[in-house]
Design brief:
Layout (H helix, E strand, L loop, with lengths): L1 H23 L7 H18 L21 E3 L9 E2 L2 H8 L4 E7 L2 E8 L2 E7 L5 E3 L2 H4 L15 E8 L2 H10 L10 H9 L4 H6 L3 E10 L9 H10 L7 E4 L4 H11 L7 E8 L2 H6 L10 E4 L6 E12 L4 E13 L2 E7 L3 H7 L6 E7 L3 E7 L19 E6 L2 E6 L8 H9 L11 H9 L16 H4 L7 H14 L1 E2 L1 H7 L7 H10 L4 H5 L3 H5 L6 H11 L2 H11 L3 E2 L14 E4 L9 H10 L3 E3 L8 E3 L8 H9 L2 E3 L1 H9 L1
Helix pairs in contact: 1-2, 12-13, 16-17
């Protein structure tokens, strides 16, 4: 019994850690296959011993919400669903009742409230009892009706998702410095819980309704869940695709969903079966964790044994080197697969991978190839001490308790794309049409080897117009954008160079100091830099290191020969000179934080990301909130002001 209790404690700790990483931190420390196996082991041990710990994931519904979004308590708690991988168990569960079988979407569950025909509140699932208020973000969901014909109070639930097509597009465009999203759910979670809904709007989040919670009027739905769902559809909501099922057609319906998931653009991790009979389902009540009127079905993973040929090491633009398993091709879910991401060094070491090992592979959610297990575990694969691209030294380190491998050579060719992407980004030279994916293609074809080559792409017109995704029009738009970027400001150019520790606001401070004369900027001394409010030893040293590098100066000369500086005249009084300001929370008078930051910088101030003893004041319209920044400001005696206070201040 002691050994079993010890194992229960180990499993609870490990599964809670995995849940916390996945749901709160948007990262993965184990595969879905491994998680399910460990979870099932815990369920079995709890049943066998009769011991269920208070923090067991088998009874805890959700996890503490971690963000600065406002919190609220759900009127009706949101429980998890019990699950099975056995279609026979589904048939037995349904019995002689009619049911509703639908996709189980893999996104973020949202509760919406409408009053007088208008959206008044949107709340995430959160812990199941307490969620985050994301109403402002829900208003910019791509397909969500903001006004409906029903004027009573309506509460419904659904899933916010980002489609695979949008996920692939967005993942190819976001700066590498933010890291690639591993799956659409991670991206959706980050998008829905933004403090600035301008970002949410750009992510193309979709909402699919799956259940009606309540209405203020006594509407007759003939005791049918399906009629409730169809009523929501009539109000303008996109609904989760479903089928009416019974004991006779349930297994065939499951097969239909299974055959269609590979073509589904919406992320799904299984199915949900609910009794169509509302009263019957409600009469069954709930357990501590699960409602008894619904059950989830997870796909029985198709496992195939194969032989590991090698682990390929792929260097990314951030320096992160990812292990990729290359194995003898196998047929999985109707397609041939021969490679799978291993995610990080910790997972690779846990699998004890070695060349020639017999491994089991599967497709997570029937789509993404993964390694389920290693049957022979020779452990002969070693972590390389050299980068596969530049052959310079690597560094093994821990990020959030996960081992990862980095190339530490700043001049590694694999990092060029990151540099080019930063140079062309919106706040830098603002060249539209050069996404990270496009830059990657141009680099691989040899069109771009150094930054100045971006201004010489016209000589590759014939090749570019025939590339996938390009044509005469997109080529012309790209060249026009490049030519428009030739006229820029000294601050934009300085920021675009990607000098460590120098953001756009710092670049503006430096250029303002030298009256926007870039020749003077390049010759700045450490003593001159340190006289600028907000510039310390670290920033000054980064600046001087960059401008003392002969290769960089040669490249900068080439860039300067391609551009011209616009005339900048500023009579704006520098009333915020030397002030460090933090912005948090939602804004009412400014379109977004960028606009407010621009106003502050034009007045000589500097916007910083965190509250410290050097902060002069914090702008937050909710002065009484319990956000971490508010708490820190109060602890340090730093003034918290609203937008109205700020506007009054700069008008004095």
């Amino acid at each position: 019994m002691a050994d079993k209790l010890k194992r229960i404690k180990e499993l609870v700790k490990l599964l809670n850690k995995a849940n916390r990483a996945y749901y709160q931190e948007d990262r993965e420390i184990m595969s879905n296959f491994e998680y399910d196996a460990l979870y099932d082991e815990l369920v079995s041990l709890e049943s066998e011993t009769g011991i269920v710990l208070s923090n067991s994931p088998t009874i805890n519904v959700g996890y503490e919400v971690l963000s600065e979004l406002p919190k609220t308590t759900h009127d009706v708690p949101m429980l998890s669903l019990n699950k099975t991988k056995d279609t026979g168990e589904l048939v037995s569960w349904l019995g002689n009742h009619d049911g509703v079988l639908s996709w189980k979407l893999d996104g973020l569950t949202i509760v919406l409230t409408y009053n007088n025909g208008e959206l008044t509140r949107a709340v995430t699932r959160g812990s199941g009892e307490i969620g985050e208020v994301i109403t402002n973000n829900a208003r910019v969901f791509t397909n969500l009706p903001l006004k409906i014909s029903y004027t009573g109070e309506l509460v419904l639930r659904g899933e916010a998702v980002i489609k695979y097509s949008d996920f692939n597009r967005i993942n190819s465009e976001i700066p590498e410095i933010e890291g690639k999203y591993k799956n659409p759910r991670n991206l959706c979670s980050g998008s829905v819980r933004q403090l600035n809904n301008e970002i949410t709007a750009k992510r193309n989040v979709h909402f699919f309704a799956f259940s009606l919670v309540s209405t203020s009027d006594d509407i007759d739905f003939d005791n049918s869940r399906i009629k409730q769902i169809e009523w929501l559809s009539s109000l303008g909501f996109d609904i989760v695709e479903y089928k009416r099922v019974n004991g006779a057609n349930l297994e065939k319906s499951v097969e239909w969903f299974a055959s269609n998931i590979t073509n589904l653009d919406i992320p799904s991790d299984g199915l949900v079966l609910t009794y169509d009979d509302i009263e019957y389902g409600m009469s069954l009540g709930t357990t501590a964790k699960f409602p008894r009127d619904s059950i989830a079905f997870k796909w029985e993973d198709e496992l195939k044994e194969t032989s590991l040929i090698e682990v390929e090491w792929s260097a990314s633009r951030t320096g992160l080197i990812n292990p990729i398993a290359i194995f003898e091709p196998v047929e999985l879910e109707g397609t041939t697969v021969s490679r799978a991401s291993i995610h990080n060094i910790s997972i690779m070491e846990a699998l004890e991978l070695g060349q020639g090992d017999t491994i089991q592979v599967y497709k997570a959610n029937m789509i993404i190839p993964q390694i389920a297990d290693n049957l022979t575990r020779s452990g002969s694969i070693k972590v390389p001490d050299q980068c596969p691209v530049c052959h310079e030294k690597t560094r093994l380190q821990k990020d959030n308790d996960v081992k990862v491998l980095y190339c530490i050579n700043d001049e590694c060719p694999a990092k060029k794309v990151k540099t080019f992407d930063h140079f062309t980004s919106r706040d830098a030279m603002n060249i539209e049409g050069l996404s990270e994916a496009t830059i990657d293609k141009f680099v691989s074809k040899g069109f771009i080897n150094e930054i100045s080559d971006i201004f010489k792409l016209e000589k590759y017109k014939d090749e570019i117009v025939t590339m996938e995704g390009f044509g005469e029009k997109s080529y012309t738009n790209l060249i026009n954008s490049i030519n428009q970027a030739r006229k820029t400001s000294p601050a934009r150019l300085l920021y675009s160079l990607g000098i460590k520790n120098i953001g756009l606001s710092t670049a503006k401070l430096i250029c303002n100091k030298f009256e926007n004369d870039f020749n003077k900027v390049m010759k700045a001394t450490k003593e001159e830099l340190l006289t600028i409010p907000g510039i310390g030893e670290v920033i000054a040293d980064s600046f001087l290191e960059y401008f003392s590098d002969e290769k960089r100066l040669e490249e900068l000369d080439k860039i300067l020969s391609e551009i011209e500086f616009e005339t900048i005249e500023s009579n704006q009084p520098q009333i915020l000179q030397g002030k460090n300001i933090v912005i948090t929370g939602s804004l009412n008078h400014y379109t977004n934080r960028k606009e407010l930051q621009g106003v502050i910088e034009d007045l000589g101030g500097k916007v910083v990301s965190s509250v410290s003893s050097n902060t002069d004041f914090l702008i937050n319209n909710n002065k009484e909130s319990n956000s971490s920044k508010n708490k820190k400001a109060k602890e340090l005696g730093i003034e918290i002001i609203s937008e109205e206070d700020f506007i009054a201040m700069i008008k004095e």
